Recover the amino acids of this structure.
């Protein structure tokens, strides 16, 4: 049994003292430096420190939950699924955007671990950021299959596996907004659509069932759309689902330039521009 | 829920002596809801591009174009001098031996390599070639750019008579 385990008041009691390193064993204590901001009390954010016991499978989200349960119920943060699919628990961990549920405390031991809210967003309280700017940008690109007026030939809007491959990788986005935190252009160009919204647009543009490309093009092909991206590439590095938004944006730039040139050569009557 | 309903409940709560209700949740009669929201936006640092290794690599890639741009400007001046006659051309040639120009030329070679290699490295993000259910590997896309560069360089070399 480790010294930390023996001394901890939070020992699960499951180990037999013979070097147990099972999932319940406390292996040490880490100091979490959590950014606090209470709009009703604070004028600016500050850092509060908590000592948290951790085990082999303690995630950063678990550590925050432990603080909320055991030390400070006023600590505010978002979470839901705890398995990297809901995209709620994005934080800056030592300055890098990560999903709290996906990161293990053991990888940050002995610490300290600085936990801050996602960068490039307004902080509402503690680790909770305002998602509204992103939601409006996402809605602007119509992230859904836009149907045309032609009735379907048969039951179901069918698609072959090859047709699905055209957009499959981009459909993996969980809107966790780590890419928005990683992207410096989101911080500098306030109106920038951002990586996830553009990726959603590309995902639906490539869907064989969709007919909304002309509706999305004016939003994408604008100063605050695709062209605010300077191809830093940090969005793709930050993405926890391997979506590669940087690729989506660059491909959308090529498609927008092609559409722009196409208007000179073969202008279309009634095109939405 | 209408505002009147909320204010009614708030009034009812007050009448029961539970005035401890947070101010933010109380909707006043005939007024807009009171909110305790005060979002804090951290300012972006002017030197954000130095923050991470990835940002620094990006900044170097972008800055390399400035050096290459200066070299192209120097070259353009050379063309103008060539057009203006022998004296101007000799002045420009003499200028190229100055330390500032030598440094610029050496720096241009380095930055051209940085610029070309980083952009070649980025091309697979734009060029995705699908063969059936698989994409052509990124390495092949990058390699074809180097092959094209070498082919173009060879053509120019031959065109100039092998220097």
């Amino acid at each position: 049994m480790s010294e930390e385990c023996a001394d901890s008041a939070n020992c699960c009691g499951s180990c037999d003292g013979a070097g147990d390193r099972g999932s319940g064993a406390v292996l040490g204590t880490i100091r979490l430096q959590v950014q606090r901001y209470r709009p009703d009390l604070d004028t600016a954010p500050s850092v509060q420190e908590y000592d948290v016991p951790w085990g082999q499978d303690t995630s950063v989200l678990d550590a925050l939950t432990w603080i909320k349960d055991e030390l400070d119920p006023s600590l505010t943060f978002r979470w839901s699924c705890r398995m990297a699919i809901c995209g709620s628990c994005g934080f800056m961990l030592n300055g890098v955007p990560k999903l709290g549920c996906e990161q293990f405390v053991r990888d940050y031991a002995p610490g300290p671990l600085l936990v801050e809210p996602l960068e490039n967003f307004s902080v509402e309280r503690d680790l909770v950021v305002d998602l509204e700017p992103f939601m409006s940008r996402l809605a602007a690109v119509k992230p859904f299959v836009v149907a045309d007026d032609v009735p379907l030939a048969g039951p179901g809007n069918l698609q072959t596996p090859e047709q699905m491959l055209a957009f499959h990788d981009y459909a993996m986005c969980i809107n966790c907004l780590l890419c928005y935190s990683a992207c410096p252009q989101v911080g500098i160009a306030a109106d920038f659509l951002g990586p996830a919204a553009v990726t959603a647009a590309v995902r639906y543009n490539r869907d064989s069932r969709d007919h909304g490309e002309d509706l999305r093009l004016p939003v994408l092909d604008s100063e605050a759309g695709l062209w605010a991206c300077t191809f830093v590439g940090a969005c793709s590095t930050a993405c926890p689902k391997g979506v590669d938004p940087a690729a989506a944006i660059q491909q959308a730039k090529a498609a927008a330039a092609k559409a722009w040139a196409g208007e000179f050569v073969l202008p279309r009557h009634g095109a939405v521009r | 829920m209408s505002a009147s309903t909320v204010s009614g409940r708030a009034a009812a709560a007050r009448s029961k002596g539970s005035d401890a209700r947070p101010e933010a949740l109380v909707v006043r009669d005939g007024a807009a809801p009171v909110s305790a929201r005060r979002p804090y936006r951290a300012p972006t640092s002017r030197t954000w591009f130095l923050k991470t290794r990835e940002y620094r690599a990006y900044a170097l890639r972008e800055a390399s174009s400035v050096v290459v741009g200066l070299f192209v400007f120097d070259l353009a001046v050379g063309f103008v001098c060539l057009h203006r006659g022998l004296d101007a051309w000799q002045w420009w040639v003499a200028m190229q031996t100055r330390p500032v120009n030598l440094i610029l030329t050496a720096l241009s070679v380095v930055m051209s390599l940085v610029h070309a290699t980083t952009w070649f490295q980025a091309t697979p993000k734009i060029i995705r070639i699908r063969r059936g259910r698989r994409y052509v590997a990124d390495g092949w896309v990058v390699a074809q750019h180097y092959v094209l560069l070498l082919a173009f360089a060879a053509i120019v070399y031959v065109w100039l008579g092998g220097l």
